[in-house]
Design brief:
- The chain is α+β, with helices and mostly antiparallel strands and 374 residues long.
- α9 packs antiparallel against α11.
- The radius of gyration is 22 Å and the shape is globular.
- The chain starts with a helix and ends with a helix.
């Protein structure tokens, strides 16, 4: 499955859910005309047509990333008829025109082009300017997603990261998903000071030196995603002493999150080519102390945007290029960036050796504990 789709089996993808309907609800399945995701249903509501684009189809677990078409071997494996699936379009394609009925319901003129720009992460990556191999985009909210760019499918022999179709026709994303990152920082605030703002917690974290006084945090509070894919993993603080301060704990959590992201970026570089800059987005990207930690740990420039609506910006870029308003995605992004250049965090080379040692220590602690069976 990984060799065909670029992704491992996951209940997040809809192929398993389709099979469940076939087995658990045979009466419903027998009457089914189409199995559509919510985004596909939305396109149908606007145009009367059943289309899905390749970046969305990549989330079903049924798309061959090489042919960018429904894969017969996977359809047979899951027992799904291709006729039940939506027709495929390239991302950035016009799926149809706004029908009179839909136009009346939403107060817009009939006949407006309806363009399918892609999935949310793919649009966020496009809106962050992910258009070359020497850049990655890191989106950290409740969890984290790291996306790299490639002009061809790139598979990891160890299946640590996924390869998915992007919002740019004919291109691909290297994708790493971490399950609990920002949500751990929120948990920390609720535990040690629910009356505190995140800004105040950041101030405490900044009072602790790089390395957090030797305290190491592994933020696997809901299991581990990329690169370990271990649902049994749990969170950990290692190195607590009587001199550990609240600031040390806060900084250790931020460093632990940054370490997860850094490890996955290192894997992408191993599979593809060196990365020069990291564009950050999501709620935690508003934290200057977190962005500086990322820059120091990665040894790369971290770009903090002024426009936080990267997903909407990516959808706008896709539509603007499709409609001929701009000649290319780079042209559209440059125009959007012209009035709001990002803030740049430069790595402090003094801490590179310290953080390299911390990353090795983190790996050693994780693997030592993962071998323990209780």
């Amino acid at each position: 499955i990984y060799q065909l789709t670029g992704s491992s089996v996951s209940s997040v993808f809809s192929a398993l859910k389709m099979r469940w309907f076939r087995e658990a609800c045979p009466d419903v399945y027998a009457k089914t005309y189409k199995m559509a995701g919510i985004q596909d249903l939305f396109i149908h509501a606007l145009t009367g047509k059943f289309y899905t684009d390749e970046s969305l189809a990549g989330r079903t677990g049924l798309l061959n990333i090489y042919t960018r078409s429904w894969e017969p071997r996977l359809l047979e494996l899951y027992g799904i008829k291709e006729s039940l699936l939506c027709d495929l379009l390239e991302p950035g394609s016009e799926a149809g025109k706004l029908t009179r009925e839909a136009a009346s319901a939403c107060g817009l003129p009939a006949g407006i082009p309806v363009i399918t720009a892609g999935g949310d992460q793919q649009c966020a990556a496009l809106g962050s300017g992910l258009l070359s191999e020497n850049m990655v985009v890191s989106n950290t909210g409740t969890g984290s997603y790291v996306n790299g760019y490639s002009r061809h499918p790139v598979l990891d022999p160890k299946r640590r990261i996924f390869c998915t179709t992007s919002s740019v026709p004919g291109s691909y994303h290297l994708e790493a998903g971490m399950l609990s990152t920002g949500t751990v920082y929120r948990w920390l605030r609720e535990v040690i000071g629910p009356q505190q703002s995140f800004k105040e917690l950041d101030q405490e974290a900044s009072s602790s030196p790089p390395g957090a006084g030797g305290l190491l945090a592994i933020p696997h509070f809901k299991g581990s995603g990329s690169p370990y894919w271990n649902p049994g993993a749990s969170g950990l603080f290692y190195g607590l002493t009587l001199s550990t301060s609240r600031g040390d704990i806060a900084r250790a959590v931020l460093e632990g999150i940054a370490a997860e992201i850094t490890v996955n970026i290192n894997i992408m570089e191993e599979l593809s080519q060196p990365v020069e800059t990291v564009q950050v987005s999501g709620g935690m990207a508003k934290s200057a102390v977190f962005n500086q930690i990322q820059a120091d740990m990665m040894g790369k420039q971290v770009l903090q945007p002024k426009n936080w609506e990267a997903t909407a910006l990516g959808a706008w870029m896709s539509s603007a290029v499709t409609l001929g308003i701009f000649s290319s995605y780079q042209h559209a992004f440059s125009e959007a960036l012209r009035s709001s250049p990002p803030k740049v965090f430069y790595p402090d080379r003094r801490y590179r050796e310290l953080y390299d040692g911390m990353l090795k220590r983190k790996e050693a602690v994780y693997h030592a504990l993962s071998s323990v069976r209780i």
